[in-house]
Amino acid sequence: MSTYMAKKETVTPQWYVIDATDLVVGRLAVVISNLLRGKHKPTYTPHCDTGDFVIIVNADKVKFTGNKWDQKSYQTYSHYAGGQKIIPATEMLARKPEEIVRLAVKRMMPRGPLAYKQLTKLKIFKGPKHDHQAQQPVEYKFPTTAKI
């Protein structure tokens, strides 16, 4: 009896579309990171990229729970003196709403070369349209037990 290990050649990725309208950012990011890593498949292998492609539409319509729109902030640092920027969540939503979802998913992925490669399979759009129709994506159905 041997354990099955997926190989890069045997994995066929699927394309999923998720409409982020009125979904909570953190709970959505958990689902997306599991799809990108392939943890929803029985063939999941930790050291191999068994994940799928994920397209997020309507990223500008996500929501936070509680008072996070007022309290949450995003920080960047250029490594120069005075190069720290702190952007409130409401301003980030107005400027770059895709970045809210991307950063939430990135912070839920493990750090390392494999996760960085898996993160490139995430495509985020702020409106309802995307340019990946040729890949024939399927709409992702959330499990009935998921609290999204």
Give a structural overview.
The protein contains 5 helices and 6 strands; from the N terminus they run βαβαββαααββ. 29% of the residues lie in helices and 17% in strands. The chain has a domain at 15-66 and 96-135: Ribosomal protein L13 (Ribosomal Protein L13p, Chain: A). The mean pLDDT is 94. With 148 residues, the protein is of the alpha/beta class.
Give a quick precis of the structure.
This protein has 148 residues and is α/β, with parallel strands linked by helices. Helices cover 29% and strands 17% of the residues. The protein has a domain at 15-66 and 96-135: Alpha-Beta Complex (Ribosomal Protein L13p, Chain: A).
Helix proportion range: 25-40%
Structural class: alpha/beta
Neighbour order of strands in the largest sheet: 5-2-1-6
* Tally of DSSP helical segments: 5
- Shape, per Cα inertia axes: globular
Q: How many β-strand stretches? A: 6
Please identify which CATH superfamily of the domain at 15-66 and 96-135 we are dealing with. Ribosomal protein L13
Work out the strand percent.
Answer: 15-25%
Alpha-carbon Rg, integer? 17 Å
Which spans have pLDDT < 50 for at least 5 consecutive residues? Answer: none
Following the backbone from N to C, one meets helices and strands in this order, namely EHEHEEHHHEE
Specify the CATH architecture of the domain at 15-66 and 96-135: Alpha-Beta Complex
Distance between the termini: 39 Å
CATH topology of the domain at 15-66 and 96-135: Ribosomal Protein L13p, Chain: A
Largest sheet: 4 strands, parallel
